[in-house]
Design a protein that fits this description.
- The chain is 25% helix and 17% strand.
- It contains 5 helices and 8 strands; from the N terminus they run E-E-E-H-E-H-E-H-E-E-H-E-H.
- Helix 4 (194-206) links the parallel strand 7 (180-186) and strand 8.
Length: 254
């Protein structure tokens, strides 16, 4: 997939403000939907374009922000584990969330509203994408978290959670308004405990998302073909293409 330069990461404060953003696919003003690709610790924005190519949707717009690269943030969005106390990951955490929020707004200004924008991340990037949606819940085009979960130590309060529903039931009315979510992770990921993925699925469902969670035995900290297939299916539902069935529910219109 051919990359092109985009503007820096807006006016976000902190270490990640002003960092470059790589664009690919169609310009936002010409695309039916957009995907924000968020890299993991030690990776690069350019590396996420390989993942974009695997999605096989060059008709969509892609934006991939770059984390800072200095002593404390060596191409990472925050310095400690995603389950560390929140203060231990500042100011990088707030700065990174500001970058993502700014890209959502940039796409909206270009004609792609949040309801047609997918937040997709791997590892640290997955944690950020999911956390932004939990902190700024609204109808998104989709959330895709490859090997990640919500940020903070166990017991971190999540404002706005509705009542827990029965397994398999429709999500309650909530600010995520039926946003389709996919969470994929290994059962023995060395960085992301399965319990946190489960907790994330429950929290997002209680915010009104339609969550699909898949735990892969022995997968490790990576992305596998089945996860890519689910991501393609989500994009096909959001912006119809050939139509790929990966066993996820079609989200309601609106």
């Amino acid at each position: 997939m051919i990359a092109r330069a985009a503007n820096a990461a807006g006016a976000a404060a902190g270490p990640h403000g002003g960092q470059p953003v790589v664009a690919a696919g169609r310009p936002a003003g010409e695309a039916a939907a957009a995907v924000i690709l968020v890299h993991g610790r030690g990776a690069t924005a350019e590396s996420m374009l390989d993942l974009a190519a695997a999605l096989e949707r060059p008709d969509l717009a892609y934006l991939a922000p770059q984390a800072a690269a200095d002593t404390r943030y060596p191409r990472s969005w925050y310095p400690q584990s995603f389950m560390a106390p929140l203060a231990a990951n500042e100011p990088g955490l707030s700065s990174a969330l500001g970058v993502l929020a700014g890209l959502v707004e940039r796409l909206a200004a270009a004609g792609v509203p949040p309801a047609r924008t997918v937040l997709l991340g791997f590892s640290q990037g997955a944690c950020l994408a999911l956390e932004l949606a939990a902190r700024q819940p609204r109808r998104y085009g989709g959330l895709i978290g490859f090997s990640g979960g919500l940020i903070g130590p166990p017991g971190t309060p999540r404002d706005g959670l509705g009542p827990a529903g029965a397994p398999g039931a429709d999500p309650p009315e909530g600010p995520l308004a039926g946003t389709p979510v996919f969470l994929g992770c290994s059962d023995r990921d060395p960085h992301v405990p399965k319990a946190r993925v489960d907790e994330t699925a429950e929290a997002l469902a209680r915010l009104g998302a339609r969550v699909t969670e898949r735990i892969y035995p022995g997968m490790g900290h990576t992305v596998v073909a089945d996860e890519i297939a689910v991501a393609r299916a989500m994009l096909a539902l959001l912006a119809p293409d050939a139509g790929i069935d990966a066993g996820i529910d079609r989200p309601p219109a609106g």
